[in-house]
Specification:
This protein has a single domain, classed as Aminopeptidase. It is an alpha+beta fold. Helix content is about 30%, strand content about 30%. A hairpin with a 3-residue loop joins strand 3 and strand 4. Helix 5 crosses helix 6. It is globular, with a radius of gyration of 17 Å. Strands 1, 2, 3, 4, 5, 6, 7, 8 and 9 form a 9-stranded mixed beta sheet that branches.
Length: about 180
């Protein structure tokens, strides 16, 4: 293996087409039907929490964080997607992207991060499996793949319920207010 050196920087608008191609390559063209994508519907990535890794001028990795609400009460972040070009895996790029994102999220005052993924990989940056029934997601998902990380000690104490985007969470928990907002009243 040759030594591959990469840099991590904030995502730029000019990166979007490269990111979409990388995500298609990493997760397939049907990636948008997965539960994690349903959690992103109606939302935009959180400002300041989208990063890319580059080898020279070539984009080789991406990570984004999205807003979530648990049971309509607890603001959280969704980590993902995290994708690394296949020929660039194994060089620590994914871990470095997560460390940068989690550090920045903490500095911005976020308290908790949730994701759907492989525990052995994500545990390297502090993620743990959610207890059975603690967090439910709007679609099929293996409960053993629902992970979280506290950015503030104790941030998950008492947190449980349905995980949704803030837009969907508000519509379900406060229908009267959502209707008034849509009607302009």
């Amino acid at each position: 293996m040759s030594n591959k050196s990469y840099s991590i920087a904030a995502e730029k608008p000019s990166d979007l087409s490269h990111i979409e191609q990388l995500l298609d390559d990493a997760f397939g063209l049907d990636r948008r039907i997965k539960t994690a994508y349903r959690l992103r519907e109606g939302s935009q990535p959180v400002d300041g929490l989208s990063f890319v890794a580059r080898l020279g001028d070539t984009l080789v990795g991406t990570i984004r964080f999205w807003p979530l609400r648990v049971a309509g009460r607890w603001s959280s972040l969704l980590l993902g997607p995290l994708a690394i070009q296949p020929d660039f895996r194994g060089y620590g790029c994914g871990i470095a992207l997560m460390e940068k994102g989690l550090e920045t999220a903490s500095q911005l005052g976020h308290e908790r991060v949730i994701l759907v993924g492989d525990e052995p990989y994500y545990s390297r940056v502090g993620f743990v499996r959610a207890k059975q029934g603690m967090l439910s997601l709007p679609g099929p998902v293996d409960p053993n793949r629902v992970l979280y990380r506290e950015l503030v000690d104790g941030a998950m104490n008492g947190v449980s319920g349905l995980v949704m985007s803030p837009v969907r969470s508000t519509a379900l928990t406060e229908p009267g207010e959502a209707e008034q907002t849509q009607d302009g009243c």
